[in-house]
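Lab notebook page, bench 4
Experiment: in silico fold of construct C2
Operator: M.H.
Input chain length: 386 residues
Purpose: comparison with the prior construct
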Amino acid sequence: MELNERDYPELRDAVSRVCDRFGGPYWQDLDAREAYPTEFVKALTDDGYLAVLIPEEYGGAGLPLRAAAVILEEIHASGGNAGACHAQMYTMGTLLRHGSLAQRAEYLPRIASGELRLQAFGVTEPTSGSDTTKLRTTAVRDGAEFVVNGQKVWTSRALHSDLMLLLARTTPVDQVRRKTDGLSVFLVDMRAARSHGLEIRPLRAMVNHNTTEVFFHDMRVPAANLIGEVDKGFKYILDGMNAERILIASESFGDGRWFIDKASRYAKERQVFGRPIGQNQGVQFPIARAHVQLRGAELMLRKACALFDEGKQCGPEANMAKLLNSEAAWMAGEACLQTHGGFGFAVEYDVERKWRETRLYQIAPISTNLILAYVGEHVLGMPRSY
């Protein structure tokens, strides 16, 4: 595993140039209106960045996960946010690895070109939360279709996506040998379903993540849209979790870079009592410590990427990278906000927005406590804690 300071330099520079067109005022305006960054997502799509993980035969770039991680890192390091489009990268693996040849041929080229958006991921429910095996959304076979009923929550981007990857129970939990059995994955064409049993309601939140509640009322999905085998969907979803962890960790690392750069520059420029505030250890040391912790977290992120791209087992590293980078980014955000004092709460400085956004990643898409439970049980061999 090589640890070059700036791997993929041309890719980083190209992504940064795109981000330069969408500066602080752009994100501030979206935040104020709780609007979706349509122009930004279109720019990324037009330049092929959201299709980097799609094989070349389907119109993508066929690059490794590390390249996708670099793209998301640079978006966040520029002051932007990739939450509007990152799901297309980490949900892609389910369709790519477990979809049929016909499904891949039908959807992947159109996703790569931008004709279709795969941004919605329907897993979390209000009653089950992280206990995915207890989800209540059902899909019952009816001839050549499945009839879906239930509810999802925190389904981000559902109003701005054409397709949804949906996890539903196809066999009741009391009729399966293991509680992880009986769940299936479907690729839902939301364009057709919106007037036929699919209801989407915006869900206001602390951050502008364009999240929603989704309700299914006898929504019909063609059996041809079942991904892989019926009742085997849980393992398909888990199969994509390592990529999700790594990509989210990359965004957190980018946030940390932004906070530390912003804080250190302000600490050098801001004069109080006739000297730069960064000359005071009480200001300087928290920024320095955040930098040290962020760079340490980066090493685990790089290792997780390398193992994933080599096709090796990387569950522990992916989870630890997500935990370490999300916490390091939060520490950097705290240092940045404290360094700016009252101005840190001013919208025009972008600090308060980024501070809110980075806090999310200690809770979603997996909470820090669940990562610790995973490490305790599967890495250290201790008894299951829940």
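Observations: The chain has a mean pLDDT of 96. The longest strand covers residues 212-222.
Next step: discuss at group meeting.
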